[in-house]
Amino acid sequence: MIHVPTATWAHTMFDLAAWLGGLGVSVLLYRWRLRQAVAEVALKVDGRYFAALGVGAVAGAWLAGSANTLRGTDPVLSHSIVGALVGAIVGVEIYKAARGIKGSTGGVFVGSFAFGAAVGRLGCFFAGLPDQTYGTATALPWAVDLGDGVGRHPIQLYESAAMALFLAVYLAALARHAPWAIRRGFYALCIWYGVQRFAWEFLKPYPRLIGPLNLFHVICAGLVVYGWVYYLGDLARDRRAQVGALPVPRPDHEPV
Description:
By secondary structure, the protein is mainly alpha-helical. It has 7 helices and 5 strands. Strand 2 and strand 3 (151-152) form a beta hairpin. The longest helix has 34 residues, at 9-42.
């Protein structure tokens, strides 16, 4: 068992690093590969897009987090990153439906979210037991003691590593100009985040909601379904557009 020194202020420190680093990642990716994709989105949206995103994220974060912790043995209000993600999606999709906007508009946020989740979970880990994101007891060699003498799954590190892996794959795909990363990266993020988070939830002592599943299992399952359905829908639109495009002859009569 590995003893881990913890401090509640660590959460704030890593949160700041996640926010500032995530902003930097967004700027770098915009200049490197996403300039055209973002320009296309900017032509479709206005300031109400960001209002819908912000209101949805805040509401989703506190509703999902508190709905989980208020059912525990020590009820408290709390917030959740997956709740913020789902809330932002709901707010944006309502806005898009009202404006008749099709396709993904979240590409510029993919790298920043993955980076932020990877770094932010380190803050949850070093904040220790008061953060209430710790894992269940285990006798595995890498079990961690967060201050109560109990060996636990370092569940926060599992999620941090999973999101760092996604970020590495995403960056490699951007380097190759892979269409899935440039056009459908946000939907891929939703699928990956939902799948990995769904798995880790089995290693958390949260109150159960349906059988062995807690509230976040249900939320993550919905996130995966959303990402998969919208990913396939956007892919189908791309294929229809390619089929419907007419070749334009060059002077030598070769289509381009």
